[in-house]
């Protein structure tokens, strides 16, 4: 496997800070806006965004939750073995709110579609926006586009983007994994 680092350490932190300033431009003090991290990996990103927004705005009243989409996915019955769901931690109603869905990587769009379906259990939002750290923009199966993007990556289906978070993986890093090209023998 060939690895190429896309973001790490300070560059990742600067990217998160930039995204937070974009959110502030559109949502001001977050009095009618909420952050929802998509479980499992988007929750780490949502936590970072929440921490940064709270520090910038000096506001600890921003509402943030985590959403599990396991049973809303269109492929969950196709998986072998038991399916394990994460927990939802949304202790507020999203009725009439502006919701910012947050995930680490946008690839086919299926995760986001499932998240929008799951979100309706908590009310009907006024508006839903999407923030992703990485947008793999040429691999979409559904017509879903993010409102806020950390980094756009042009990749093929055989490549994989892996996001590591300090809290879970011991380091902050985004890498692109590729199979090595087969060497030509003549």
UniProtKB/TrEMBL annotation:
Pfam families: Pribosyltran. Residues 6-166 form the Phosphoribosyltransferase domain. Keywords: Glycosyltransferase, Transferase. SUPFAM superfamilies: PRTase-like. GO terms for molecular function: uracil phosphoribosyltransferase activity. The keyword Transferase applies. This is Bifunctional pyr operon transcriptional regulator/uracil phosphoribosyltransferase PyrR. It comes from Pedobacter montanisoli.
